[in-house]
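REQUEST FORM: STRUCTURE PREDICTION
Request ID: SP-0412
Submitted by: Lab K.M.
Chain count: 1
Length (residues): 185
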Amino acid sequence: MTPATIFSIHLLLGYVPWLLCFGAYIWPSLRLMDRVEAQRAIATLHSFRFFGLAFLVPGVVGPNLPADFAVFAAYGDFATGLLAMLALLGVRRPSIFWPSVAAFNLVGIVDLVGDYYHGTVLHLPEQAGQLGAAYAIPIIYVPLLMITHVAALYLLARPQPKTEPGADNRKASGLSSLRSPSSVR
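STATUS: Completed
RESULT:
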C-alpha cells in the first residue's frame, strides 16, 4: 500500500469511531442540555484550534509541506479557535455569545472544507509524510471538529422548545431543568 492510500484510508476511517462515539455518548447529552450549555461545550472543544498553527512550525511539519495548505489550515484553525474563545468569554452576554457561536462554526466549516479542497488540489495524500507530527490532526482531530460543527449548526437552527410554566422558578432555585429519564420517576 502506498503512503497516499494509507493517508486516504486514515482520513476516511477517522470519521467512523468519532461518529460511533458521538452517536452513543456525546449527541444524547448535547440534545438534552440547555442550548447555551450545549454550544458552550462545543466551543470549549474548538477553543483548542489554536493548535493548528503547528502547520507553520518547522520540525513539526516537513519542509516540503505545501505552503498553500499549511497557511490556510493554520490561520483558519487559529481564527476559529479565537472566535470559540470569544464565545466562551461572552457566554453571559448573549449579544456576544450567539454571534460568536455562529461565527466560529461558519469560519470553522469553511476552514475544514477549504483544507480538504487544498489537500486534494495540492495532492496532499502523496505528500502525507510532510505533515510530520501534525499527521494526527487531520486523521484524529478534524473528524470530531467537523461532526461538532454540524451538530452546533443543527442545534442553532432547530426550533427551541416552549418553556413550561415554572421553569424559570426551578432554574432560579438552582434545580436543573435537565433530568435523566431515571430521575423523573
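NOTES: The mean pLDDT is 90.
Reviewed by: T.R.
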